[in-house]
From TrEMBL:
This is 5-oxoprolinase. Residues 203-488 form the Hydantoinase A/oxoprolinase domain. Residues 2-181 form the Hydantoinase/oxoprolinase N-terminal domain. SUPFAM superfamilies: Actin-like ATPase domain. It comes from Acuticoccus sediminis. Residues 500-672 form the Acetophenone carboxylase-like C-terminal domain. It comes from the Bacteria. The lineage of its organism: Bacteria, Pseudomonadati, Pseudomonadota, Alphaproteobacteria, Hyphomicrobiales. GO terms for cellular component: cytosol. One of its GO terms (biological process) is glutathione metabolic process. One of its GO terms (molecular function) is 5-oxoprolinase (ATP-hydrolyzing) activity.
Amino acid sequence: MRLGVDVGGTFTDLLLHDAATQRTYQAKTPSTPEDQSIGVANGVKLICEKAGISPSDISLILHGTTVATNAVLEGKGSRVGLLVTEGFEYTLHLAKSWTPGPLFGWIVMDKPEPLAALADTRGIPERMNARGEVVKPLDREAATRLIDDLCSSGIEALTISLMHSYANPDHERVLAQIVKARYPDIPVSISSEILPEFREYDRAITTVMNDYVRPIMRRYLSRIETRLKDDGVHARLHIVRSDGGLMSAEAASERPVHTVLSGPAGGVTSTVMVARRTGLGRLLAFDMGGTSTDVSVVIDGEPTISRSTEVGYFPAKVPTLDVRSVGAGGGSIAEVSELTSSLRVGPRSAGARPGPVAYGRGGTEPTVSDANVVLGYLPPVLLGGDMSLDVEGARAAVSKVGEALGLSPEGAAQGIIDIANEVMLGALRVITVQRGLDPRDFGIVAFGGAGPLHANALAELLGCYPVVVPANPGVLSALGFLESEFKNEFVQTFIRSTKALDAADVWARFDALAEKAAHWLEEEKVAPQDRHLQFSVDLRYEQQGFEVTIDLDGDVIAGKASLEAVFDKFHATHERLYGVRFHVPVELVALRVVATGATTPVEEAAAITGGPAAEAIIETRPSYFNGEWVETPNVDRARLAIGERVAGPAIIRQYDTTTVLLPDHYAEVDPHGNLLIWPNAKGN
């Protein structure tokens, strides 16, 4: 039995899969921002009760966490000391020397303080060149004095990031040994292990970020393992990486920087699975939760991977799924500006506590969820009857917005929904239109607790159909964790012109990376038959500032021969991406080996209990569409058989979410149990 756990800003979602019976069980419980481990432990108890099992029956827990992300965004990380090469103490301050353009000239840039303060930075007498040759030997005596001075000042973690350590890590390793011998309780990260790539600022800030969140992640994982153990859970705990892969809890406590986008990764992984199972290769992942909305693109059944991301103001050069987030969710607060008398929605959120007014937990400010309640889109009870909504409280809160704008409660609620939709539409445009992609060529997968409430309206705005509402949309990210594979990346910077390049030298370095990858797979206890290695190279035209990653085909790897075919593939890829092919020498920048370990796919027994759509109607309630109240059927999704159609308008209800089906649309249950929403104009 495998359990996926997704901690959100409002709810903690859990999905349990029993491989023996091919059944899944789901649960949602309020998140506990003061200590996320409390909400996780509460959720595990709840789902065990629902499934009728003992906590000891769970064999594996796969957990997506926002602990690292929140620590950076809120500036509540640890005090980090930094050792750099003498003369480079201002690396984090200089950063990339970004200067606002002329349109920003009137804006005063609020430059954030670095994650490691200058007062906690020391320059070490030493120097390597870009080929890994010692230019200035390491002064061990001076280094020891500087380490003693820094480590006795109260720092909680230490980063070592020396010039060109990617080419020769010897000096970094010596310094780490000195620290560990003299200050064994201070966690140490060295840049040649966290990010063995060139570009000193990226390497330094990524390694510092790792240490900034490392003590916090260690404490969190320790708390959650202790709570689960006390509750009788003996399962192994794995953490989801930013690129959708898995890592052990031990690895996550050492390299938490790889979890900075852990939360949204599960939803993208599930969208990929939806694409592969339905044959809809081009999909937009639309994950709307209580606090934010995350969107991503899946093309030809594959997610888009980025080699870097940003956490607040700071870049992190780690592999991530290319996800864009906006501060619009079910808990986003609506308010009228005193200055302009205009309506604003988000990014402020009511969070888990107090939450929307309708939740009855002390919230007083109207939210998007309250607007959905007022319009009749959300029923009076949620979570299968476990949670009652305060309909009158929500209406009173939204009415205050309406009074300020001279609108009826329904008009104010519609305005709140429309503005929230426009914010989310902007994120979807960024990942499609601004990249030259036509959204009309894509379907949209709606998930998260609030995704199916808004997806039909967004599809109507963008023209992207079908809207796919999976069987478990409210806990789809947790399902994605169950379908994730173990993953890690091993890189070596190797800058060489490809003219007269010695292929044997390249393959020797690939062999060394592959050996590291095999050792990691062994540590993660991945069975030999589930292991896979993917080889790639980063290439660019000479004097270009950025490179393109090109995967090596199986025959090239097997033959270990010339790389000419790889260079030809680079020319074709560059032309496809940028519309131009240059006739100048190609430069090799880095070698990469990505190690993956396959996990057992989630196979769910098909539901055969459904019947005709007319028999699935729970009740008929008024809902607000196109400026008027309409008596709208509320349909129990669990009672819909495969192939059944529901005509809009309709409200389709299930345990973990509610789907709004607009007028002039219909929803059909496909053979995989997904709801596919189409406009009537496209119907058969």
